[in-house]
Every structure is written in structure tokens, then in C-alpha cells.
Structures
1.
Amino acid sequence: MSSAVIQEIRLEDFNAEAFIKEKADELSSTVGNGIAVNALSGGVDSSAVTMLAHKALGSKLKSFFIDTGLMREGEPQHIVALFKKMGVRVELIDARELFLGALEGITDPEEKRESITEYFYKKVFGKLVKESGAKFLLQGTNYTDVEETLAGVKRQHNILEQLGIDTQERYGYKVLEPIIQLRKRGIRELAKTLGLPEEIYKRPPFPGPALAARVIGEVTKERVATVRKATIIVEEELSKTGAFQYLAILHEDKVTGVRNGKREFGSQIEVRCWNSKDALLGAPTRIPFELLEKLGDRITEEVPGVVSVTYNIAKKPPSTIEAV
Ligand code: XMP
């Protein structure tokens, strides 16, 4: 399939109820008596797909949350518990060592993304699909993911068929993408209509490669831990801005700092806080300086080894939302 044959459903033409009915019928007839597996990350896209498929397929759907070791603090457990409350069983798979091992020594951004994609689809899902006897993998690819990948901006982790990858041949299953015609705002409306809580349908976007998209240079356990700690602070302080997306990035270069009167050659964290409609274009939010100062203080005090904090003031383009 190429983007030419994927028809975008524009927000003004989108009817969530009718869409749910149509896609649920489609899923149910495609999967038939078989089994489908599904990767939940807790983002609005994969959450909407999980709920849609749960309604359409019931016990023929097996949902997994893959802990890649690249998620935010407590995220895997929190999302699994949240879905459990809604009656959806999600199995947590610990793949932390596998992913960190796969990323060892890689510094090139596109190579990182490719490595995550290969491990995710081949090693982890290839195995889960085989074990469960499933023939289908459901995922929440959206219209913007396809556009950005085909435009050559970034290889989005979930784009396969549009890059000419035959998933059946390469991984042993077919990928189903029920929300590929929608952009973020349509997906939020869909998630709300599906009965997902506000925490999910209003959730700021988070990239598939997770914190690896926010570590410049090699992705190690320690460096992910640094960006994870900074992320907690950035999310706590910036959620009140109502911005489209806010994040912390760990830079590769270190700089000279001074702490308690002693030289400290430490890390640099960059904060980004975006205004955007659909992530295609973005501009930095005009954050009050007091809030920026608070971020600077908290990050240098609470995240070990960080001596410098900067705020990104470039627009997208030429910047992108994530750093990798
Ligand atoms: P960029 O960094 O390309 O990001 O300006 C645009 C939007 O997409 C998110 N993003 C991803 N989402 N898989 C995803 O599902 C990915 O590989 C990926 N990379 C970036 C990013 O957070 C932003 O909202």
C-alpha cells in the first residue's frame, strides 16, 4: 500500500460512531475465527486501536505492552492497570535487556530507529505472534506517520508496508492499521467516543521509540535514566501550559560546570515545549521566564550529573519535535 491509496479522513468529515462501527465490522471479518495481537503503548493512537479491537474481537484479541526499558517512569505498570480497570487484559512483556542490547554502540538517529523497529517487529512480536498462533498484528499508525516517513523526514517506527516491507514475508504476520486515515485530532475524538478516560484521549503525543528519541548519541541504561528523571520534571511543570507537547532531551556533548565550588564536567538537558496542531508544523511556546528558571533549578538539582539546561526556540521546520 502507498500513501496514494490511503485516503485521509478530514476532521470535518469524521463521524466517530460511524467510523467505530465500520472499522469494528471490518476487523471482525478480517480476523474471522483467528487471533490478532496488539501492541499497546498507552499513547492515544494505540489505546484507541486497543479499545476498538477489544470491542470488535473480544477474546480473539491478545494485547501486549512491551517494556523496552525506554518508557517513562512507571508507565508500563500504570497503563496495564488502567486498561485492566476498563476490562481489557494486557500482558506486560519485559524486553528491557533486549532493546538496550540492540541499541548498544549506535549513535546515528536513523540507525537507532531502524534497530528499534527490527527488534520490535521481528524479535519481540515475531515470537509473540508465533506463540499465540496469531496471523495479525494491530497497530495505531496514523496519517501523519505515513506522510512524514514517505517525505523522508524521519522513519516512524511503525511504518512498514508503505516502505515496501512485506510484513508477512519478513515477520510472519499481517499488519492491520484501522486508524491510518486519521490525524491526531480525529483520533482523540475517536478515543473519547470509545469511552477511554481523559488521561488517554488528551494525552500529549509520545514517540514510538520512546525516550530513545530524546537521547542524542548512544542510548544506554544510565543515559535513559537521566532523560527519564528530567522528563518527570518537565511534564510536572509544563502540563499546566496546555502545550501540544513538551519534552526533555539529553545532549551528547558535555560541558564544564561548577558545583559546590568544584569543577563538574556534566550533561546538558534541552527542554522543548511546542505549540502545534498536528505535529507537522510547530513553534516554541512563550513560557514565562519564572517557569523556565524553575525548570533550570529543578533539573540541575534533581537530575544527577546535569549542569546545563537550555530551552529550544527554533520552529519546526527546520527543527523537528523530537531530537532523534
Ligand atoms: P517529529 O520529531 O518528526 O515528530 O517532528 C512528529 C510527531 O510524531 C511523534 N513521533 C513519533 N510517533 N512513532 C510515533 O508513533 C515514531 O517513531 C515517532 N517519532 C516521532 C513526535 O513525538 C511528534 O508528536
2.
Amino acid sequence: MLVLVINSGSSSLKYQVRETTTEEVLLSGLVERIGEAEVPDHAAALETVEAHLNRVLGDRAIEAVGHRVVHGGERFTTPVLITHEIVRAIERLAPLAPLHNPAAALGIRALLEKWPKLPQVAVFDTAFHRTLPEHAWRYAVPDDLYKLHGVRRYGFHGTSHDFVTGRAAELLGIERGRFRAVIAHLGNGASVTAIRDGRSIDTSMGYTPLEGLVMGTRSGDLDASIVTQLVIRGEYTAEEMDRILNKDSGLKGLSGDNDMRSVVEAAAEGHDGAELALEVASYRLQKYIGGYHVAVGGAQAIVFTAGIGENSWPFRQRVVDGLGALGVTLDQMSNVERSQEARIISGPDSAIPVLVVPTDEESEIARATEELALAG
Ligand code: ADP
């Protein structure tokens, strides 16, 4: 089936056309500066997309559309066929994802208007984590915060964690329903997920994507009093703290640079801040891996994915070097090998296999879209 995959942001729209039978990507593109003169709105952005489709696909027509939606709240546990009611539900979740959900809804509405007959599917970043047990998704705060304000762990990157879990189980020849693993999705945003019986039972991102690992520009875990104290003392406004923790922290906060390649290079040249950033980031991930190894009842795999996880062998090495207590070792040759294939990088004596598995969120979205379009 020919599926158009859409990732709609407030000022940009990323798209891909995939043939699900062959897994082939027929075309992909990005429309930027939505809201400016040339591309006033998402409907205008779709004109550009349509022109690209016509050029490349000729007579072949798109059969379904899959949308990436960041927040599915507590309601959406699986991908769904989109109706007007579903779009309104996505919009109602805006307080939980103020930057992302309204933008996704704009993209969906524009498509519904342009191609009303095409089946459209929403795939949620949070959905895969709806299997978390309550002790993992609850914060130890008064119940009203949950009941009145939806304060709980939601988790993100679910589409990627789901896809990578399936591929890793396949690579190891373990039935997915019995698979226990720790999956580290390390991109600009980064999260780690505990997999038991093939499902997510804990994940490091929380109420928002700020919690957990040290990321490109996000701090990850910290004492909430840092925020309240600095705001109470009038040192910063709440908005400033929000920006500092989301945009100026993480690798960037410690080293001055948010890109892992530059941080690794700077550390090799003796830059103290870069070295510290790598130490803090790898130590944080080691703690999560150790904790989740316990949570899943003994992991059968530790898996690296996304930009850093797939490409930065020095960072993988730092992380695995700290896992000696788990009996984990690396095979140096496999770790430094440049390859786009899913593979095992641990040594033959490693107590737990360590894997690199390239993620492909679009392929997962296309697959889910086809399934629902055929069923619907
Ligand atoms: P996003 O979360 O935006 O999808 P990606 O998954 O593309 O992010 O990951 C971006 C990160 O991956 C950046 O920190 C970048 O430095 C890192 N990265 C990408 N390619 C390489 C590479 N060849 N070596 C080391 N790091 C890389």
C-alpha cells in the first residue's frame, strides 16, 4: 500500500511516501516556514507536498495517510483511524503538549479537507507506554495533581521503542511476547525504556520529555526544588526556567554544544566541559540501564538506537564500560564498525547481548496505517 507519512510541526511539515509491501521509501521532503508569506498555512504546505507527489508518483495515488502525533494522553493506547472527533480529542490534549498537538491537528485538518476520502491514521508517541504499571507511572504527589491536572508519567518516543523492540527480539531469535530488554533511544531527545514480555513497563521521560537522560539541550532528571527555589527567590521567571531546562541544558549546558559529534571531538581535544558532559550523560544512562535490568527481571538485551545510539561508537563505549557489574562486555571491532544494519556489538563472553538497531519511526507509522486502513 502507498502510504503518506506526515510529521506536522507548527512551522514545518515532514513527509515521506512509503510502499509498505517493499518497505521502499519513494520520496521524502520537508516544508519549512509555515506561517510566513510564501507558505501561509498548513493547507499551503500541502500544495507543495502534492506537487512533489505528482512529480514522483505520476499516476499512482496515495492510499492512506499516517500522522505522527506526540501526545495521546491516557485515551490513546493504539493507533486510530481519524475522524473529526479524534482531531478534537488531539486538540483537547494541547495542555499536555502545547507545542506539538495543536500543530499535528492543523496538519490533519488540512489533509481531511484536501483528501476527505483517504483513510487517515494517528500514531501516538505516548501510546506504547500505556502498558506501564501504575507504580511506574505515578508520581508520589497528592492525588489531585493527577486527577485535576493529568500529572503522571506518559513517556515518549513510543513508536521508536516499539519498532526497535520488535527488531531486537527478531535479531536474537526470541519470541517478542517473552522478550525482556532495555532500549536506549539516543537522539537530540533521548529516552530509555524497560521492556518486559515485549511491552513497555517503565520509561525515563515523564509528564513531559524533560525527565530522564541527559539530552542535547534538556537537563533530564533534577531536583524539582531547583526550579521552585530559583523562581521563589526571583532569580528567574517560570518561563525562563522552562527555557533553560529544555533549551540550554544537557550536553549544551555542560559543554556549550548540543551535538554529540562535536562534544566527542572536543573531549578528545581536551575540552573539560565536553569531557564532563560525556561523563554525566553516560553515567546517567548507566544508572537507568542498571535499574531497568532489575525492573524487567534480567534483560536479554541492551539496545542502542537513534542518531547517537546508532552512530556514536565512543559514546556507546563509555556507557558499556560502566556496566562491568552486569558482566557486559563490548566487541571493539563490532562497536566501531560503520553499518546501517541491526547487529550485536557485545563480546562473546558478555552476560547480556548489546545491540545496535537502527530505528525507523516512519516505517512503523506506515505499517500501522496500512493495518487500520485495511481493517477500516
Ligand atoms: P532527533 O531526536 O532530532 O531525531 P537524531 O536521532 O537524528 O535526533 O540524533 C541526533 C544526534 O545524533 C545528534 O547529537 C548528533 O550529533 C548525533 N549523531 C548523528 N550522526 C552521528 C554520527 N555519525 N556520529 C556521532 N553522532 C551522531
